[in-house]
């Protein structure tokens, strides 16, 4: 009787661990990456005077559009990108093939994407992006 309870507990733990390990995979649907995304700010204490949009294409190219409202200036930056084999890391490169940004993809759905800076010393920050409708 005691062995049956032990096996039952073991089976319960195994199922629980299996479901939890799949949870992150369910939040990263790399097929949803293509499209236009804007960086959003959730900090109510931070004032933002512009916008940053990322447009990801299926040919592994990306355009970053930066609008500076104070200078009334738009800037377009062209990048290429790679996705890691496990779909958890995105790396952006400039026109010369040099690394510019690298993020751990924490979440990627049809409406939202969350990035954690994978190289903290490069000057980039974590990002939360929302898909645009235009």
Molecular structure report:
With 134 residues, the protein is an alpha+beta fold. It has a single domain (30-131), classed as Beta Barrel (Lipocalin). It has one helix at 2-27; strands at residues 35-40, 50-56, 61-68, 73-83, 89-93, 99-108, 112-117, 127-131. Strand 5 (89-93) and strand 6 (99-108) form a beta hairpin. The protein is globular and about 75 Å long. The protein starts with a helix and ends with a strand. The model has no long low-confidence stretch (mean pLDDT 85).
Search tags:
alpha+beta; Lipocalin; 1 helix; 134 residues; 19% helix
- Give the integer mean of the pLDDT values: 85
User: How big a fraction of the residues is strand?
Assistant: 35-45%
User: What string, H for helix and E for strand, traces the elements in order?
Assistant: HEEEEEEEE
Q: Structurally, how many domains make up the residues?
A: 1
**What CATH first level would be assigned?**
Mainly Beta
**Count of DSSP helices?**
1
CATH architecture: Beta Barrel
CA radius of gyration is 20 Å
Low-confidence stretches: none
Q: Major β-sheet, in short?
A: 8 strands, antiparallel, barrel
Summarize the structure in short.
By secondary structure, this protein is α+β, with helices and mostly antiparallel strands. The chain has a single domain, classed as Lipocalin. It has one helix and eight strands, in the order H-E-E-E-E-E-E-E-E.
Topology:
Layout (H helix, E strand, L loop, with lengths): L1 H26 L7 E6 L9 E7 L4 E8 L4 E11 L5 E5 L5 E10 L3 E6 L9 E5 L3
Antiparallel strand pairs: 1-2, 1-8, 2-3, 3-4, 4-5, 5-6, 6-7, 7-8
């Amino acid at each position: 009787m005691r062995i049956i309870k032990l096996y039952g507990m073991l089976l319960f733990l195994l199922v629980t661990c299996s479901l939890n390990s799949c949870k992150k995979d369910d939040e990263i649907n790399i097929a949803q990456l293509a499209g236009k995304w804007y960086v959003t700010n959730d900090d109510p204490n931070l004032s933002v005077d512009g916008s940053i949009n990322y447009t990801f294409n299926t040919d592994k190219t990306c355009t970053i559009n930066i609008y500076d409202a104070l200078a009334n200036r738009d800037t377009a930056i062209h990048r290429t990108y790679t996705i890691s084999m496990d779909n958890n890391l995105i790396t952006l490169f400039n026109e010369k093939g040099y690394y510019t940004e690298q993020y751990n993809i924490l979440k990627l759905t049809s409406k939202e994407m969350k990035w954690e800076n994978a190289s903290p010393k490069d000057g980039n920050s974590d990002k939360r992006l929302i898909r645009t409708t235009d």
